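Before the break, one more example. Copy the sequence into your notebook; we will annotate it together after we see the structure.
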Amino acid sequence: MNEGEIFGLLGPNGAGKTTTVGMLTTRVIPTEGWARVRGVDVVAQPTIAKQLIGVVSQSNTLDRSVNVWENLYFHGRYFGMNAREAHTRADESLELFRLTERAHADVATLSGGMAQRLMVARAIMHRPQVLFLDEPTAGLDPQSRLALWAILGELNDSGQTILLTTHYMEEAEQLCRRVAIMDHGRLLALDTTEALKRSIGADTVVTVSSDERLDELARHIEGMEKVTGVHVVDQQVRVALSGSNGILPRIIGYAEDGGFRVTDLSVAEPTLEMVFITLTGKDLRE
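Here is what the structure looks like once it is written out:
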């Protein structure tokens, strides 16, 4: 990943995203190979590596024995700040993350979105060179997710380098310029989001709903002109093709000619999820 970017690591549950982040953040020892963060070998020099990184894991790791402000203050002290610096930095972080009014609250009373914001605030207290976020919005409501997206965008605008793992495609498209897609521990693709979407050779995706024989319908539609890929996902047939002129009536007619009844159609541009389906044949949310 490049300095100053938000880099996305995408894949379904079990793809190896968390394990990869675990290795890069010294929590998991690689069984082979090597890994470096900012030139530092995370296996040979884990103590130095930890000084360079901030980590927000999937689970809530806030200290419940102290309040919101103290979670930040003591983190700063742990990383070598003097009392005055840690105090100032904690106040600034609460303001940046919209948590000033909850400074003296018990962390157990925070909503999921607030707790996640506090964990990100704590992770950057010591000004890490790289911030690792492991599925930071998993389980958050839409409003909390948007609020965290806005904060991450502000951090990145200020120069913070971020590695983000997620299985939310809209999150990657909103925040990341480049993404890597992985599954079963293997890297399948790495490029900008726009280049990856172009890589499937389609500019249009049509989702076809039918109440019968979806696999047969998919195989039938594969025979249409300009179709570059067809997959059955979520009880629907997704068709990637080049050119959208008059495509809906063409698909309906083609399906009906094959003896299939179309109950609904929708048209969209290619997405990262479509890229993943093309690469692996399965839904990113699996």
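The mean pLDDT is 89. The first strand starts at residue 6 and ends at 10. Try to locate both features in your own notes.
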